[in-house]
Write a structure and sequence with these properties.
By secondary structure, this protein is α+β, with helices and mostly antiparallel strands. It has one domain. About 20% of the residues lie in helices and about 45% in strands. The protein has one helix and five strands; from the N terminus they run αβββββ. The protein has a five-stranded antiparallel beta sheet with strand order 1-2-5-4-3, with no helix packed on it. A hairpin with a 3-residue loop joins β4 and β5. The longest helix has 16 residues. The radius of gyration is 13 Å and the shape is globular. It starts with a helix and ends with a strand.
């Protein structure tokens, strides 16, 4: 629970200060597998990142293939 609170406080501070930090969010891809949505940044294949779920639990994953790119976000498959 404390991890989630710390995460939310950090996000609030970043938004108030106007800083944009890269966000890594779990995302269900079209092929029904779990991948990562990257907001406010760009990923690189083979990059190791830490993804936080809604409960605040952090997991380390490796980006595999970029599935989609938008103006404000990218979708990535992860290595299993």
């Amino acid at each position: 629970m404390q991890e989630r609170i710390d995460y939310l406080i950090a996000e609030y501070i970043n938004k108030k200060s106007g800083e944009t930090t890269m966000e890594y969010i779990w995302y269900k891809l079209k092929d029904d597998t779990w991948g990562v949505k990257i907001k406010n940044g760009t990923g690189v294949a083979g990059q190791e990142i830490k993804v936080t779920n809604k409960a605040g639990k952090e997991s380390t994953v490796v980006l595999a293939v970029q599935k989609a790119k938008f103006d404000d976000a990218e979708l990535w498959a992860i290595k299993r």
